[in-house]
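Our platform keeps sequence and structure together, in a single record for each protein. Such a record has a labelled line for the sequence and another for the backbone structure tokens. Nothing more is needed to write down the fold, since each code stands for a local backbone conformation. For reference, a complete record is included directly beneath this paragraph:
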Amino acid sequence: MIAEIIAVGSEMLTPYRQDSNSLYLTERLNDLGISVAFKTVVGDNGEHLTAVARTAIARADLAIFMGGLGPTQDDLTRESVAAALGVSLKRDHAIVTALYKRFAERRIQMPGNNAQQADILEDATVLPNSRGTAPGQWLETSVQEQPKIVVLLPGPPHELHEMWDQQCMDRLRAKAPLAAIATRVLKVAMMGESAVDARTAPIYKKYPHVETTLLAGQGQVEFHLRATAATKAEAQADVDRLAGELEDELDDAVFSSAGESLEEIVSYYLQMRNAKLAVAESCTGGMIAERITSVPGSSRYFLGGAVVYSNDLKTLFADIPPLMIEAHGAVSKEVALALAENIREICNADIGVGVTGVAGPGGGTEEKPVGLVYVAVTNGHKQEVVQRHFFGDRDRIRRWASQQALDLVRRMLM
């Protein structure tokens, strides 16, 4: 069974409002082994909404409409779905009576347009709304002899969630074929998407029944694996087999096999090694410390450090000799390593991190262009300095630099 989710509302076609309900419904549908094949956002236009409804009902087994069930002139979901199906709407007088009672209990006169919320698709089952005035609807029908389920849900999330969980899940569980979906996320650090795909495509193409999606971020590539089978155990076994082969191929470039962030993985290693960390940051401006402390419990392994943006503060807080800066420049391998070594000693940490670079957009030269970054990590016995040239805007360069730093810490602790 495949589903389509249609979010109704012109506000979601502006920069100011997002559809979040579909994420919730997708998760709940996946719990039943139902895949969402399409998601559509359509404005409050009857002609457009009717066309979208026709398409969705034709191509999906389950079409779920969210929103457009209220009392105003732009609430057109009922009328548009009825037009798409070629059925009539009938006013449910019991719902109208309940609406009048609800308003009377609040000592408010009910505007007449509220009665349109009681217009029900022919042969549909009413889904009472315990948290609002607009009821939902559940219709089982057929199109060209193919069984279809059409569901109309209110748009406000607190109404939609309760209605779906209490009135739709069991109905759908009884109708959906026996199936289960398993997923897994692998994350790879500091490799480009094309390089990762070149090495792994021959592997994942051997598993056509496992849907594989690659997503590239700043300093990482994610594998989103998804399989459907008769049971959860079978689906999970399919996903795990592919994940295992991908991990074997990419080796220690894979930092997470269960969706954890890089800072969470660094947290695990620091605690496992009973190690303390300190950082001295220039171009990242505290981003590394912010990412580390975003993980609950980070006080157990993160001592702190310093943001040493100016040359004077590199000397004052991280004990960098002015002659070193004069000889090599603030953006240099030597200064990065000295930042790491000195902050480790100053904070009495086991591991020190030093970062310096040119984040841009200004400040670059031919010798040291925007995007040049040096990242150093040391544990007092072993040290590593990496020179990288990142591309993009200021935020992207800083994010890549912080990712490189955390990955070096991870590798030193492995």
The first strand starts at residue 2 and ends at 8.
